[in-house]
Amino acid sequence: ARTLIVGQKLAAGAAVVGTQYPITRPEEGIAYCGAGSVGADMVKAYKAANRTTEVFLIAVADAGAGVAATGSFTFVGVPTTGGALALYVEETRIPLALTAGQTVAAMATAAPAAINALTDLPVTALAAAGVVTLTARHKGEVGNGVSLAVARTIGDTVPAGTTVTVAAMSGGATNPDVQPVLDAIANEWFTDIVFPWDDATNLGKIAADFAERYKAMGRKDAHAYI
Fold first, then answer.
1. pLDDT level of residue 39 (50, 70, 90 thresholds)
2. Range list of H helices, 17-134
3. Residue 161: is it exposed, middle or buried by C-beta count within 10 angstroms (0-12/13-18/19+)?
4. Distances (CA, A) of 72 to 54, 89, 218
5. How far apart are CA 26 and CA 30, in angstroms?
6. For residue 218, pLDDT beyond 90
7. Strand pairing partners for 70?
């Protein structure tokens, strides 16, 4: 078994686009693709599940014409009592300590400070007029899948007098083109290939490539994971 991870990278990642890198440790995903990147997340998840199979990474930059997804937390009201408010980005819990009488502007300003301090999150945050806008670090459709939530776990509370509404991440558009990666590995045999994109155009190219790989003269069987 040989695995290839095709990971989207940020500008901070050291990987040269299209180059294969052997992966032995989860931290290498951050080095090659940048903190908070799709590629770093994919490498971390893979190594958590499988520490023995030989695995390689090919990094792909955002599409130049890509658009980053956005979402928001909107704060309304003034807390009548102090307490903790938990925001969630994916599985990460981000606690805010609210105080009685705290203004909407103050609450909304505290949220980006806490979010941006976590450099491995897939979003960055900015506050204006009580609204915290979150922007995906990556351009493309991948940002649309980032989940946002408020007080979603048993024991989480929202201090009385305050409400926080969530606008889901959306608007991300134009994924990178998978074809250059497929062309680069045309003569290599990977039994498992992991892709971060599920748009129809890229899925069609992957399906066509896999059919070609398994023709009689090659028989390079493989599984694709999205």
1. very high
2. 27-33, 38-49, 104-116
3. middle
4. 40, 11, 49
5. 8
6. no
7. 135, 170
Residue type, 87: L
pLDDT above 90: residue 64 = yes
In angstroms, rounded to a whole number, what is the distance separating the alpha carbons of residues 149 and 210?
38
Report pLDDT digits (tens) over 104-131: 999 999 999 999 999 999 999 999 999 9
User: How many angstroms separate the CA atoms of 103 and 123, rounded?
Assistant: 25
CA distance 106 to 174: 35
Does residue 216 carry a pLDDT above 90?
no
DSSP 115: H
What would the two tokens of residue 169 be? 């991440």
Tell me the chain's radius of gyration from C-alpha atoms.
21
Percent of the chain past pLDDT 90, that is, above it, reads 96
DSSP 59: E
